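#struct-help
A.M.: can someone run this one for me? Single chain, 174 residues.
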Amino acid sequence: MAARRRPPPTEPPERSWLEEALPGVRPLTDRDKIVPPPPPQSAVRVPPVEPVRFDRVRSDGDHLEGVAPGVDRRHLRRLRRGELAAQLEIDLHGLRREPARQALRRALGEAIRQEMRCVLVVHGRGRGSSGPPVLRAALVEWLGEPPHGPHVMAFASSARLAGGATYVLLRRAR
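D.P.: on it. Structure tokens below:
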């Protein structure tokens, strides 16, 4: 059996026209590609923002509270008594840990942008799961995370919702 010979590939008409217009030009290979230099490093280094560690954190039974370092405890008492009305409420019921964390981050970011002072975070008591209340236990850590952590002044469980929700007090915009 004789081997069949393939005809040479035909060049598209544009290619021959291009070669006539630009003699000696050839397509780039991987070796010819130019890699741009990395952007210059800034002389001023911004340290990473550390999470806020709240003072006087209390978490017992259905109660959760804490205050940011240097914040007057009177703010915590006002939250505990329910003297501040929530301007935004976020319900985390039924969410797993990571989706709940992301929802809280979005809500706090929005509250900060709109210069709200008080947010009510409804997290439930965790009775639907077999272990301890996961969202309430993680809330203290989540409230201290950047970028919203430095804006959180204090937090306290809601007296009217008996441990199923927490009021969060945000700093005033400067």
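A.M.: thanks! The first helix runs from residue 13 to 21.
D.P.: also worth noting: The helical segments are 13-21, 73-81, 97-113, 134-144.
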